Amino acid sequence: MTRRFAALAALAVMCAGVELVAGRGMSPGVVWDVVNGGGDATARHIFFQLRLPRLLVSLGAGACLAVAGLVLQSALRNPLAGPEVTGVTPGAVLGAVTATALGLAGWDSPLAVVLAACTGGCAGAALLWLLAGRGRGDPAQTAVHGVLVSAVLGGLTAMVLLVEPGELGSVVQWLVGTTEGRVWQHWHLLWPWALVWGAGAWLLAGPLTLLRCGDDIALTAGLSVRPARTLALLCAVALTAGAVAAVGALGFVGLLVPHLAVAVFGADLRVSLPGAALVGAVVVCGADAAAQLSSRLPAPPGLDSGRFTLPVGALTACLGAALLLVVVRRTPSRTF
């Protein structure tokens, strides 16, 4: 396990290095000069005020989504459960877009956007909690109600777009997910939130491992199933809200990274939860590096090359959809 963690840590460092030199505006040589204390004021500003916080936010958001996905899949005993099943992702998008449309927040005020997204995400989770009612501890009912809540919140987001069509760009950024334009304020808001709720999820590793084995076995072992599942879902909701508030709805990260983590680190969640955080950070960081490298490619005919930037959420969605098909075809009836 130590060698596996070391290998993933080395891969994370490599992806981080690629991301720092991948974007336009600075050549790798200029980046190297800045790292060694040189470079002009513009280069130092781009590196320290734009690229470095973007890197940290991508690492933190990937870790949050991966841990949230593993917690959900363990608590609900559903290998296809993801953060979207809680209604938090569409709720956070709705909160951010609504606040922007009302003029209460904007991309130039990260704190206001993050607070609006967190509020929307918590509201989505609360709506799921109310609809689930007495059956909120049942995995199947929670998943079904989560899909319904997500559909309702997505419809409300579409209504906001109809009322304020000028917010189309904001809606697309939140729905697809992007790390572009992230600054230190985003990171300072994300890391304490991720640390607190990530530690809470790790403290629930024992109960979650029992929940993966089934409610009957968990009850036999003396676990209070409903409170344990409720606390686990609360951690997943909080981690998802923090990630979505920072980078938007990155598709499939919370759904597929847990499968990779369990395959690499095993079913002991005391090990696989930190492993999932590291794998999620590597996946999002690597995808963001690939997205920035794509900005160096020639733009398609008819498209302004200065605006040709592939959002990281588009890459995670395309790759995630392909991997999801593989998972479903190989394990069509898997329920843990």
UniProtKB/TrEMBL annotation:
Keywords: Cell membrane, Membrane, Transmembrane, Transmembrane helix, Transport. GO terms for cellular component: plasma membrane. InterPro entries: ABC_BtuC-like, ABC_transptr_permease_BtuC. GO terms for molecular function: transmembrane transporter activity. It comes from the Bacteria. One of its GO terms (biological process) is siderophore-iron import into cell. The chain crosses the membrane at residues 55-73, 85-105, 111-131, 143-163, 190-211, 231-257, 308-328. Belongs to the binding-protein-dependent transport system permease family. FecCD subfamily. This is Iron ABC transporter. It comes from Streptomyces qaidamensis.
